[in-house]
Amino acid sequence: MFSNIDGVTILGLAAGAFTTVAFVPQVIRTWRLKSASDLSLAMISLNATGIFLWMIYGLYVRSLPIIVANLVTFILICLVLILAVKHRRATG
Questions:
Q1: For residues 29 and 82, is the Cβ–Cβ distance under 8 A?
Q2: Which helix H or strand E contains 49, and what residues bound it?
Q3: Structure confidence by residue, pLDDT tens digits, 8-50
Q4: Is the dihedral of CA 41, 44, 50, 52 positive or negative?
Q5: Domain segments of the chain as ranges
Q6: The pLDDT of residue 3
Q7: Rg for the chain, CA atoms, rounded
Q8: What fold characterizes domain 23-91?
């Protein structure tokens, strides 16, 4: 399926890694503070939807960097959404 890993693919994987890892501090902060009051659930929901659609697009065009980066980012966004809803219920 992904037999041609070349320089462009490596560039895409690196770009995906940076944009995905950039989201990790938000996950850690939400987890540690047990609060997501400073986050917009609408923004995170829209972002999750966009990331999911990019992942579907990546599957369609068979682009490993797009698939991997968006799959990991989607998991992280879903984690933040779950934590946000959980902690808003606990404090609200």
A1: no
A2: helix 41-61
A3: 888 888 988 898 888 888 889 888 988 877 888 888 889 899 9
A4: negative
A5: 23-91
A6: 62
A7: 15
A8: Monooxygenase (1.20.1280)
